[in-house]
Amino acid sequence: MWSKRFKARSKRKNCKLPYLGMLTSQRTSHVKASSVFVRNFNTTNSLNSLSSITASLSQARQAHAHILKTGLHFETHLTTRLLSLYANHLCFADADLVLDSITEPNLFSFSTLIYACSKTNRFNQVLGLFSRMLCRGLFPDDRVLPNAVKACSGLSNLGAGRQVHGIALVCGFDADSYVGSSLIHMYVKCGQLKDAHKLLGKMPELDVVSWSALIAGYARQGRVSEAKGVFDEMRNRGTEPNLVSWNGLIAGFNQSGCYSESVLMFQKMYLQGFKPDGTSISSVLPAVGNLEDLNMGVQIHGYVIKEGINLDKCVVSALIDMYGKCACSSEISRVFDEMEQLDIGACNALVTGLSRNGLVDEALTVFRQFKGKGMDLNVVSWTSVIASCSQNGKDMEALDLFREMQIAGVKPNSVTIPCLLPACGNIATLMHGKAAHCFSLRSGIFIDVYVGSALIDMYAKCGRIQSSRICFDRMPTRNLVCWNAILAGYAMHGKAKEAKEIFHLMQWSGQKPDFISFTCILAACSQSGLTEEGQYYFNSMSREHGIEVRMEHYACMVTLLGRAGKLEEAYSMIKEMPYEPDGCVWGALLSSCRVHNNMTLGQIAAKQLFKLEPANPGNYILLSNIYASKGKWEEVDKVRGMMKSLGLRKNPGCSWIEVKNKVHMLLAGDKSHPQMTLIIEKLDQLGMEMKRSGYFPSTDFVLQDVEEQDKEQILCGHSEKLAVVFGLLNTRPGSPIRVMKNLRICGDCHVVIKFISHFEGREILLRDTNRFHHFKDGVCSCGDFW
DNA sequence: ATAGGGTTAG
């Protein structure tokens, strides 16, 4: 009855507060009455006839003053009208004041304000007013209840939602169609699908929207069979699914990662005679993109053009996104250029699409253009461009853009932080990482699994594995990625014991490991020399866990066996591999051969590598080093000649190999020590950074040579770590380490120095800008500098 | 019912 009327009213556009207008009896005389009112508002009648829609704020204030002056605030009827005037102008503080002054507020007073707050999404205020109303002994009606429920779903506050449900039961409104459907939506929003389902069963009138919401809810949780079940149930109970129901199903499957289901439903819908609209298209296209089904994508694009829905902004950005995922960079730009009006969503899709296809610089240029044109860049725009940088090795740029974003006054969210954190980890700027962590704690987004996993990874890469563990332990929910991140952290730090613990804890808690988990555990075993255990895990992969053994696992095993000196075994494993071995696998063998100076196998590996990666100078250097160790100087010259004829020079990568060899020499006393290989790997990581950064220090690099004005620029980047490591490498074992000035010591550098101190059994004292770091027996103590 | 941005290994 009333609710139906209300619904019809609310659908009218340009009518912000439908009820308030409706409640005024003399609609036609509003304008006239209000103009008269200013001149002579002494009569209560003119106040009464003041329209809540057309009256200005100053008129409302005048009326307020009049009421106070004349002591009319005991007239509940008048004060309630004033309340609606203020509410209409969104002056909630004034409205509250009026409400407090009413001696006997009635249901009408409260509902007036509740409607206004609900319309403007002031959910906390709605609930506050609702509870104040209850405290007054006033029972809500079927108009207030749905607004209270809506507030609970807006806040995702299940507890409050259940309480309101209880009140609805007491008041006998739970079977009311409007109250009921709002409760169903609330339960779906809070993920309580069983409750929603139960309630739906009790409803005498069944509406297609509530059914659709439940279907989408099941689909979003990836509960395929239940979603389909509700679909059938709906039909059996006499409600035919409409386009909305289908769209919900398609969008839900897509969100839960059931991409092929999503596309399948789209096709089914089409075959049943439904005409896909813009929403259907923009719901199915991400799934098509994730499946990289270009054929299907092109067909849908054709349909879009035929039906003329290519003006829909969502459809355009979904098309750009789909072509980006299908690696069609030419199509991305075409669709974008054909767009009539520049839309921020499409711009964001373009940036992501370009960066996904390796066109990072283009993505950055495009972003700069949008910014220059004065486009209204939102969180997604900034997050997209930060992600493009951090995913493509442009870590410094990512941090710079983050700073720029903050200057622009755009607040980061729970997606921005996981995009930024890998950049912090990659260059080990603990300071920035910690700042992001603090932000997550303050804004409450630390409970997000993506944020948590990224924090674990960042701390591990900054050399703070304990902090990683703390983040891990404090996560309210964990998924596969969280487990893998902490596992990778322990592997990175050479903590095989902890890695094994995590690996078993993970399975014990019901989380199945995947191929990444195995890469981590194999790497951990390999770094700690746990050959047999590594082999055990490797063998259990397909046998016990049903996980396909990939190329990278073979590469791990070659490294594992190679480090243990079992080079023949490593070689036979390569020969037995079901795949054609790639550069990583042969590279692992060649590196192991260099460690053990095995010439025969080294030659075999090098031969393959020369074919697979002819332009990688590192392979030539490794082989020549093996020859050199055997005193085969003619062979050394031959390899050098090969390099020369190929035009390969000792690039930074080459000098890096020299550094690596220097570490070998430094640690020559304990070649087989498990931790040594970890250092080599750490150095490899640094080498990668060196290559990426385009900044190539030579082995005798000293920071003191740098011009004063450039120093700060270099120091805030990653070169500091390299400088420290190079500095260390240039000293003879046993000699005191010279104190370096104005360096910040963090992350990888910390790890490397710690291990060097451990192996050489010497004390190292380094100073930061304001702290000292004392390394002894692999333990570092920090303190404020004298 | 409604896009667009996301974490882990190598």
Automatic annotation (TrEMBL):
<dbReference type="Pfam" id="PF13041">
    <property type="entry name" value="PPR_2"/>
</dbReference>
<comment type="similarity">
    <text>Belongs to the PPR family. PCMP-H subfamily.</text>
</comment>
<protein>
    <submittedName>
        <fullName>Pentatricopeptide repeat-containing protein</fullName>
    </submittedName>
</protein>
<dbReference type="GO" id="GO:0003723">
    <property type="term" value="F:RNA binding"/>
</dbReference>
<feature type="domain" description="DYW">
    <location>
        <begin position="694"/>
        <end position="786"/>
    </location>
</feature>
<dbReference type="Pfam" id="PF20431">
    <property type="entry name" value="E_motif"/>
</dbReference>
<dbReference type="InterPro" id="IPR046848">
    <property type="entry name" value="E_motif"/>
</dbReference>
<keyword id="KW-0677">Repeat</keyword>
<dbReference type="GO" id="GO:0009451">
    <property type="term" value="P:RNA modification"/>
</dbReference>
<dbReference type="InterPro" id="IPR011990">
    <property type="entry name" value="TPR-like_helical_dom_sf"/>
</dbReference>
<dbReference type="InterPro" id="IPR002885">
    <property type="entry name" value="PPR_rpt"/>
</dbReference>
<feature type="repeat" description="PPR">
    <location>
        <begin position="343"/>
        <end position="377"/>
    </location>
</feature>
<dbReference type="Pfam" id="PF01535">
    <property type="entry name" value="PPR"/>
</dbReference>
<dbReference type="GO" id="GO:0008270">
    <property type="term" value="F:zinc ion binding"/>
</dbReference>
<feature type="repeat" description="PPR">
    <location>
        <begin position="106"/>
        <end position="140"/>
    </location>
</feature>
<dbReference type="Pfam" id="PF14432">
    <property type="entry name" value="DYW_deaminase"/>
</dbReference>
<dbReference type="InterPro" id="IPR032867">
    <property type="entry name" value="DYW_dom"/>
</dbReference>
<feature type="repeat" description="PPR">
    <location>
        <begin position="378"/>
        <end position="412"/>
    </location>
</feature>
<feature type="repeat" description="PPR">
    <location>
        <begin position="479"/>
        <end position="513"/>
    </location>
</feature>
<feature type="repeat" description="PPR">
    <location>
        <begin position="242"/>
        <end position="276"/>
    </location>
</feature>
<feature type="repeat" description="PPR">
    <location>
        <begin position="207"/>
        <end position="241"/>
    </location>
</feature>
<dbReference type="InterPro" id="IPR046960">
    <property type="entry name" value="PPR_At4g14850-like_plant"/>
</dbReference>
